[in-house]
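The record is kept unedited without comment:

——
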Amino acid sequence: MCPVAIKKINLQGVSNMQDIVSEIIVMKRNRSPHVVNYLDSYLVCKELWLVMEYMDGGTLYDAINETQMCKDETAIVSWECLQGLDYLHSNHVVHRDLKSLNILLRTDGSVKLGQYILGQAQFLIATKGIPELQQSELLSPLLRHFLSCCLQTDEARRWSAQELLQHPFVTSAKPTSSLAPLVILVNNWKEKTGMRQ
């Protein structure tokens, strides 16, 4: 039997249950090797338990907070995330909360988008603008150009996921298995420090 992840949603105070049901239907229909797949759901007392595919490598947030990712590792993660976004967009689904906590890793190096339905991050971008890159002078010109293509506030100028998949920064990405040592290193560190969940 394979391990699974369970996301628990407290239904007390949920004003429109139909929205949650609609979002579960969207998750059920959108299965891809590039997104964390929905498996099933259960109503337990006053909680909705969403059973999802388990990613044993933690989140990208863990990796970027415990290590310094190199350009090649960044390109791999970007390529894999864009594959997931392109898949969702082609099925008329918009990822509403793309951040490092919602990018999940496996110890084999695979990368998948998670939490693509139940979120609302666009409000922050609309009200606070795009955050400034810290130490941008340390980034290669190619990476800076890639980021500028991603972070255009004007939707007409912002590249789509499909266009970004053609950008030279990601077209030269190595196989995901190249990420495995990084993920294992972060997991080992978390186990040693007792931070493993």
